[in-house]
Amino acid sequence: MQEAMRFLHTADVHLVALADPDGRRRLAVLREICRAAAGQDALVIAGDLFHSPAAAQDAGLRAALKEVLAECSPKPVLVIPGNHDRPGGRGPHPLDGRFDLGGHVRQLGQEPYEESSVEGVGFYGIPFQAGLSGGDLLRGLPARVRGGVVILHGTAADRDGLAMYASDPEGAEEEGDSVFMDADLEAVGAAYFAFGHIHKPETWTLKGGSAAAYPGSPDAVTVKEEDPRCVLEVELEPGAAPAVRRLPLSRACRSRRLSVLVAPGAEAEALAEAEGLIKAQPPDVRPAVYLRGLGSGRLIEEGKRGLEALFAGRDPRPVVKVRADALGDSELAAPGLLKDFVDDMRSAARAPGADGELAAKTALLGWLALRGDEDRIDEILEQIGGGHEAR
Ligand SMILES: [Mn+2]
User: Fold this and answer.
1) Within 10 A of 71 (CB to CB), how many other CB atoms are there?
2) pLDDT at 224
3) How far is the centre of ligand 1, averaged over its atoms, from the C-alpha of 237 (Å)?
4) pTM to 2 decimals?
5) For residue 390, is pLDDT > 50?
6) Whole domain around residue 346: which residue ranges?
7) Does pLDDT of 169 surpass 60?
8) Distance from the CA of 260 to the center of ligand 1, in angstroms?
9) What spacing in Å lies between the alpha carbon of 127 and ligand 1's midpoint?
10) Are residues 11 and 62 in the same domain?
């Protein structure tokens, strides 16, 4: 490398079929990235370009993808398979060259690593694979990797608090998870480690002046991805630490988790609140509404379906999750403490000048206190105290 070089680093695009609005939006975000990469020396995609092997088999999606990737031609695109492109990390995968994604697209699919060069800088792609540990994979890189770039897909184990952002922790594709330790990265001595797998943007420096980063998914894939979405611009200069900048993405959506408290007899108020919250979100936010508390299971489920139907045309579509204790209608009507509680709450809510929703929430706390449910009380007080806007 004679002078500075710059490339863009993304990962975890999670393309799905274009019949799904998520698929069309993610491809539009990738187009935005490719257009920006046309002014750089290269684009790195560090795994999980496809959400699943089935998505990669979709010829229509692949044709659209090839057209989008052409936006940065002739600048090279370097891509490795991640755990979603290749569940389990074994056997064939869609990025082994079987599909033509454009002459400038380098599919680094050979195990244990595949080498490529851009502007005299070595790029070492480590495809997601199950045979070797993260430490063994790094120790297997050649000595000339010093000063170069390593592209890899897995969990950086020494990054506290990041593991929870890995997608689908219960999914089969998490098997054979690659784990990389900072000490092993430091021993490699590459200038930059282009990670994929964790969907939250994170950049860190290593001993010896190297840098490592997750760009995060460019478009929200799960409800956890609440940070603004970005692509990373990496600048390598001889004799200097890499400079890593976050570039915002105008077409991307991010998630926002919102809680609504449900109380028996006030289910409709809670659902109206949920509707209002969803409507209040800006268009780049995917609202994820959690219905908490307790109430009629029938009314809550009906309400959830109603909200989903009402917002079926919204892009991005909201997510509605029921986290309330569901009670049967007969339980609510049966004589006893619960019946008395519901009746008292209803009459309190009907009192002149009363705030029905506030009455419901207050009564719910009373009901949980009667049940001795201290954990739930703390959780609910925290939600009420924090307010919805704070998140
Ligand atoms: Mn991913």
Assistant:
1) 18
2) 93
3) 29
4) 0.88
5) no
6) 254-386
7) no
8) 29
9) 13
10) yes
